Amino acid sequence: MQQSKSGLYIRTLGSPGVSWAGEPVFRGKKKATALLVYLALQPEQRALRSKLAELLWEGSDEDRARSSLRQCLSEIRREAPDLMEHAVEVNTTDIALRPDWVSSDIGDLLAALAQKIPGQHLEGGAEFCDLFLMGFGHIGQGFESWARECCQSCETQLIARLFDLMEAPQTRAAEALRAARIICRLDPLNEEASRFAMRSLAARGEIGASLQIYGQLYDRLDEALAMEPSAETQALAVAIKNGDLQQAKPKAPPAQPHALRSAATMIAPNREGPPKLAIFPFVDLGPVPVESYFLNGILEDTVSLLAQLRELQVYSSNTTRQFHSLPGAPGSQPPELDADYVVTGSVRGAGDRFRITVQLVDTRTGLVEWANTYAAHASELFEMQTDIAINLTHQLLPSVSAAELRRTEGSLPEDLSAYHLMIRGRDIAFHLDPATFITAKSLLEEACARDPRYGISRVALTDWHSVLLGQGWSRDPAADGKALQHTTEEAVRLSGESGRALARYAHNQTVLFGYAEQAIEICSKALRNAPNDAEALLWSSPTLTFSGQPEEGIKNAHAAIRLSPCDPYLFRSEHFLSIAYFAAGNYTEAVAAGRRAQRLNPNYTSNLRMTAVALAETGDLAEASKIAAEIKRLDPGFRISQFLKKQPFQDRATGQKYAARLREIGLQD
Question: What is the pTM for the complete model shown?
Answer without folding.
Answer: 0.52
